[in-house]
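Translate sequence into structure tokens.
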Amino acid sequence: MHAVIKPLKKGFFSFLTLLLVTLTLIALTEGLLRLVFSETATQHPFIEVLPERAYTYDPDLLIALRPNTEKSFIREDKKRIEWKINSHGFRGPELKKQPKTRVMVYGDSMIQARFASLDKSLPFLLQKNLNQNDLEVINAGIVGYGPDQNFLRLKKEFPIYKPNAIVFTIFADNDYGDLVRNRLFDFKNETLSLSTVERKKDSRIISGIERLRIQFIVAVLAKNRKRQERKKELNLNKYHNHTMIPDWLVDRSQSEHTVFLNQKPQRYSHFDDHYDIDLATSPNSESALTKIKFMGAILDQVQAFCDTKNIPVLFVILPSSTDLCKNLPLNFESLSNTFPNYRRENLTQPLELHFKKKGYAYLNLYLPFKSHPSPWSLFFNGADNHWNEAGMALAAPLIAKKLKNQSPKLFPPLK
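Result follows.
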């Protein structure tokens, strides 16, 4: 008996020693990185994903926000944004226990808005513009989410949070492609059904050791940032000459469509969203028409679910900066010069036509943004395709007005 226990003890202590050495080396390496690259590493935009993962795997939705997490996001203008996830997995403060009125705003990174302070985010501004006593607007946005994920999440969360109204946003930039990439639903013979393909943890949701490896790479890259920025101008010239980005986007869109048609598992990361160039430039192509019908089927399900729960839903179309601005690497002017079938409304128009045909309540923000004296001032510059604080400030009162008109009893004027 003693002969058996002795090797076991020895093996256990050897394992414990190895574990302690490994953890010590990791701590020392990370400390060294912070010391050597303290300034450059912490200012690099990619560093946002490193200190603590904000996202976790969800078998039904692919990813979810990790509750009780605090993060920093470094914008391209080097402004640092601190943001928090509450215990329920939403960005923002803890939820009220039983507010008189609760609105949930579903969407992607445009709604989560980790690039802006909480008081500048759309849900916060919407609550302010609705101007109601005991009102709570929940930020239900998650980076990379598509309408398919938001629909499934709405069904899951409704009995828990019991909202009185839903704002369901569609980003007319990459949301069509999300439906194809995510592989959560099949759409065969124009019939919508939950997909049975295998779902795996996203490779971008990384482990601690992998995070350390990436942190080292990012730190080294950050040290050479000036050289990279000099090269950036040359690359932007290539982009403006539309010799690189459109070709890559066309190839990727076709690859995603092939995976979808063959009913294969998800191939690309949840975080690898991109402009729906097939629909924007070839609106009558097979992939474009599939996306349009697929999107319509998902939105019909959203409306049907809200109808069964007797709650109003407002669909809000968020326009793409690509279709509104000239000062971006990929912009409507370069697309117009390259693709004869490109129209700036190709991504927003199918949504509006569908909502009109079905009689759904909706708001299309394309025209208000396009008619703005300087549309480019409503979005970030460079490779960031998100709206900025000015864009959200323009949208919030328009959405609030539409909600009040849609549900006057729910949002009465304050006396």
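Note: The radius of gyration is 23 Å.
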